[in-house]
């Protein structure tokens, strides 16, 4: 990872978290246990604090930032899809934020809610737990079922396992010039970290 201290504040990454080498962490960034930070994610704690709580993931090209003295927080087991932007907001426990969604300052997304792909959540928005939030500007469309929440939780567990796979097995390499004969698929190589069933 590319990691910068700013004004004496050094990013914190728990040893069980995986942060891709192309991700950028600046200043007041705190990444908890079993988190995953994807390629080209930018977590800028140069004004406010950036927090990923235990088991959260933030995927490729996501941005986390905030105004001075703000906290931008992804709660435990939060799941932030590719290209999302979080600015000075609080994402509750077990929330899914879809690809290319934007969640603005002071917004609070209730636990176990979904923010749909490409949604624009205005500053100061809030919603109850287990809500489906959609649109631009976003609004609550309906409650989520327990089955929908369970589907999300299964996906988040896969990212927690991915963090461990990456810590154990990902290494920089040179590409091959051509495809090997009978090239295996990634599933053929096992998707569980060493020591897990």
Automatic annotation (TrEMBL):
Keyword hit for Protein biosynthesis: no
Keywords (A to Z) from UniProt: Plasmid
InterPro entries for this protein: Hexapep (IPR001451), PaaY (IPR011974), Transf_Hexapept/Carb_Anhydrase (IPR050484), Trimer_LpxA-like_sf (IPR011004)
This protein's name: Phenylacetic acid degradation protein PaaY
Species this chain originates from: Pseudomonas putida S12
